[in-house]
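User: My collaborator sent over this chain with a note saying "see what the structure looks like." That's all I know about it. Can you take a look?
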Amino acid sequence: MNVGQILLWLCLLSSVFASISGVLGSKRADWARVGRFSSVAVFSLSSSALVILALAFLGDDFSFRYVALHSCYDLPWVYKLTAVWAGQEGSLLFWLWVLSAFSLTFLLRNRDRLSDGALPVLSLVQTFFCLLVLRSDPFLKLPFVPEDGRGLNPLLESPWMVLHPPSLYLGYIGFTVPFALSLAGVASGDEAWMERSKRWFLFSWTFLTLGILTGMKWSYVVLGWGGYWAWDPVENASLMPWLTATAFLHSPPRRKSWSFFLVVVTFELTIFGTFLTRSGFVSSVHAFARSPLGYYFLAFILLSGGSAGWIGLRGRGKERSEGGIMLLSGLVLCALCLVTFLGTIFPAVSELLSGRRMALGPGFFNTIFAPLGLSVFLLFGICRKGLKSPLPLGISALSLYLVLRLGARGPYPILAALFGGFALGNVLLQALRFLRSGDFGRFGRDLVHIGTVIFAFGAYCSSLGTEEEVEGVGPGEDFRFGGYDFTLEGFSPEPK
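Assistant: Without extra context I'll predict from the sequence alone. Here is the result:
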């Protein structure tokens, strides 16, 4: 057993001790303090393990199997560092380290009964990931030391490798803290959990959004022949928690049960997305190799989701009817998430039931997302109250003119121009009102809304206002498309 493996075993023991101390701390404050100190140990030990792995990459220590599989002498040092999370073993260790950092940050900044109640939940999640890291073992030694490593996958030798995976991980892992807060708050009847959760949700949502956007750019450059979104299962895995997190950030404050449901579902979807990438359950260019670890994630989803459901039913109380349009918007976002979920698992389920894997292409998702997305546009515009101005209608008219001028085809780009322009105009008016009053917090929030509307409008026009046709063409052959005749003269490979 080497130093890295010893650190991981100590990390597991510290995490288990923190879990036990956290449970006992619900009755005795001194045990809660012990649990916090144990969380410091988990962070310190996981940090040390991560540093050792990073140094092994930088030092070309190919005695480690993981380093030999993902690095080589000629690999630039930046990509040697990013190779730490390029494979399953290192990415799980990175996940554990970020989780321990978030847990420790939360526990050090909050010293009350609610945070004491969240401690055992955070520690149990850490224990689960400690077990996964030990099971995958990034510090496994080879029986011999190869002369050189196999090197990093060429697709991963990209500047986006520096931004995309860490951003996704920060987004995914950050939802663990609100999950722990919600369980502690509902179990104890402390309603302060929702306000604290929203701050963590906003942080996590921001990084998850950054991760999705950088992934789209990376796909556009490397994988998709000019496409930024292919409804790939792993792409969908990041979209689903984004949709439910967005719904939570806009949930009515007095709808506690609805908010609790969104927090739990968002957390479980982050684990489910990790299950998709590591189980071989779906086929994806973004997924890791098939691994038995996927079943660990599935078992964890069932246990944590069942426990959360039991706590939620026990702590459910009376709620005031509130929300209106905001609640309806959240329901639409959850419907979009459900469609994405069903479309993602359909190929695997069809194979289990019929023996044939039947995939659903982008057309399925676009057909359902198009009308539901338009309803979000419309609800987004009309939920702004007291803003009487011709600006929304003017922007709608201008958007419609631009769409028609650019030759967009089909009804959806036209409707997106009308509804999106209306929503954009109302948000602009509200943002200007906040700017004049000096409310820069709400002004910044509406800037995010403006960017979201513009991005969604562009996605509508680029994905639904186009025509595609697949043709098998050889050199010298002709084909006709869109009123034009094309001839494939031949191929001339050129180095990049």
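A starting point for your reply to your collaborator: The mean pLDDT is 86.
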